[in-house]
Amino acid sequence: MATYQLKVNGKSQTVEASEDTPLLWILRDHLDLVGTKFGCGIAQCGACTVHLDGNAVRSCSLPIASVQNQEITTIEGLSEDGSHPVQKAWKAVDVPQCGYCQAGQIMTASAFLEKNPAPTEEEIKNAMHGNICRCASYNRIYKAVEMAAENKS
Ligand code: FES
Ligand code: FES
């Protein structure tokens, strides 16, 4: 066990854990931020996506020891009230089905649009490609990302 200093959703947090504990478990079990989901556990599905210094990363495969002193943002920290353009577009398009993959989808989409605010359809599909949705809500996901880009730019 060791002590780690993390910055999560703008708040400093001190956590005790083994160095190889995945960030996902720190978020869910230590900090009670359960919006980030566990899917595959092997960086293949995207359900656990959060932002690390603004980049979309898979928290199931990131040991806590590797994320200290970086800005971690989870779905709970994306906006206080669901007012982020991606969240608004998600609601307008009514994207979710079962909802399980959606936090990861939104975190991938929001990091992507920060870097590419006016993407082509092709770029949106490429960016979202690694986030699996077992309900196959892909068309609505693409539409919502497009709408968020329009509302942002
Ligand atoms: S749970 Fe992390 S990528 Fe699937
Ligand atoms: S909405 Fe069910 S897994 Fe994506």
Automatic annotation (TrEMBL):
Gene3D superfamilies found in the cross-reference section: 3.10.20.30, [2Fe-2S]-binding domain (1.10.150.120)
One Gene Ontology molecular-function label: oxidoreductase activity
Keyword Oxidoreductase: yes
Keyword Metal-binding: yes
Superkingdom classification of source: Bacteria
Keyword terms: 2Fe-2S, Iron, Iron-sulfur, Metal-binding, Oxidoreductase
InterPro entries documented for this protein: 2Fe-2S-bd (IPR002888), 2Fe-2S-bd_dom_sf (IPR036884), 2Fe-2S_ferredoxin-like_sf (IPR036010), 2Fe-2S_ferredoxin-type (IPR001041), 2Fe2S_fd_BS (IPR006058), Beta-grasp_dom_sf (IPR012675), Diverse_Oxidoreductases (IPR051452)
SUPFAM superfamilies membership: 2Fe-2S ferredoxin-like, CO dehydrogenase ISP C-domain like
2Fe-2S ferredoxin-type domain span: 2-78
Stored Pfam families: Fer2, Fer2_2
Protein name stated in the entry: (2Fe-2S)-binding protein
